[in-house]
């Protein structure tokens, strides 16, 4: 097999094509920035599964009532002194209401 050199003067290392591609990509990026600056671009936000889980946990935490440390200390002191009396009726009502029997 014989390959003839027809004097096409083709330079395989020519950067004309790569320069043109680079310029086209640069112009495309510039147009995209301009459209986003004008508000015509479409922005999109996606939350990961972990982000959604954290948001749900935070919402649940916000629903928990704050701890009344004064009440806790008062009850602790009554228990230590042996003066704490269990409110049997209130306890029964609460249990029944949670079981939805009342």
Brief summary of the model shown:
By secondary structure, the chain is an all-alpha fold.
What does it look like?
The protein has 102 residues and is mainly α. The protein has four helices and no strands. The mean pLDDT is 79.
What structural class is derived from the secondary structure elements?
mainly alpha
Kindly report how far apart the N and C termini lie. Answer: 99 Å
Q: Please state the oligomeric state of the protein chains shown.
A: single chain
Helical content band: 55-70%
Mean pLDDT: 79
**Which blocks of ≥5 consecutive residues have pLDDT under 50?**
none
Please report the total strand number as a whole number.
Answer: 0
Write the layout of secondary structure elements.
Layout: H1 16-37, H2 49-63, H3 69-81, H4 88-99
Which properties best describe this structure?
102 residues, 4 helices, single chain, mainly alpha
């Amino acid at each position: 097999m014989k390959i003839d050199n027809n004097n096409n003067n083709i330079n395989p290392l020519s950067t004309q094509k790569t320069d043109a591609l680079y310029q086209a990509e640069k112009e495309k990026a510039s147009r995209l920035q301009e459209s986003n600056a004008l508000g015509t671009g479409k922005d999109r936000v996606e939350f990961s599964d972990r982000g959604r889980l954290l948001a749900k946990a935070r919402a649940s935490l916000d629903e928990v009532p704050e701890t009344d440390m004064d009440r806790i200390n008062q009850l602790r002191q009554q228990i230590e002194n042996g003066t704490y009396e269990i409110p049997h009726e209130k306890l029964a009502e609460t249990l029944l209401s949670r079981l939805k029997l009342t």
